[in-house]
UniProtKB/TrEMBL annotation:
Protein name: RNA polymerase subunit sigma-70
PANTHER family named in the record: RNA POLYMERASE ECF-TYPE SIGMA FACTO, RNA POLYMERASE SIGMA FACTOR RFAY-RELATED
One GO BP annotation of this record: DNA-templated transcription initiation
InterPro entries, per the entry: RNA_pol_sigma-70-like (IPR039425), RNA_pol_sigma-70_dom (IPR014284), RNA_pol_sigma70_r2 (IPR007627), RNA_pol_sigma70_r4_t2 (IPR013249), RNA_pol_sigma_r2 (IPR013325), RNA_pol_sigma_r3/r4-like (IPR013324), WH-like_DNA-bd_sf (IPR036388)
Amino acid sequence: MELQSALAALLPRLRRFGRSLTHHREDADDLVQVAVERALRALDQYEPGTRLDSWMFRIMKNAWIDEQRARGRRAEVLAPEEAGEQVGVSETGRHIARLSVQAAMARLPEEQRLVVSLVLVEGLPYKEAAAVLEVPIGTVTSRLARAKDTLQQLLGDGDIDA
């Protein structure tokens, strides 16, 4: 039961990671649900003493890969987010900055976006991010460096207030 409580506490982070994978709020929620269901079915595979967040991020990444493959087989493409979602919303500096960062993140290659999400957003150590992504630590480091350079260029070298 303690593990299930810890899993419930991870839900906001899982949802945030899901958004970085899917670029779509509803798809992210569905992905979190799939990942939690898989985790609950496989609780006996979780090794106590290891990081639950890394285990869950790996499950989510694998669930997303499975979903992408299934979509490819079905040749389905999700509809883009509704146009006009932000109509009538006050255009404060933070809101504009957030949208700019989201747009810049969306332009990153997926492997770079995932590293940024795991290391910079979720705070995973490089070693844990490497384990989640199943790549060497050096690959995480180089992808993160390239992603930071690209984001800096896209965001105008810090011209946006956070």
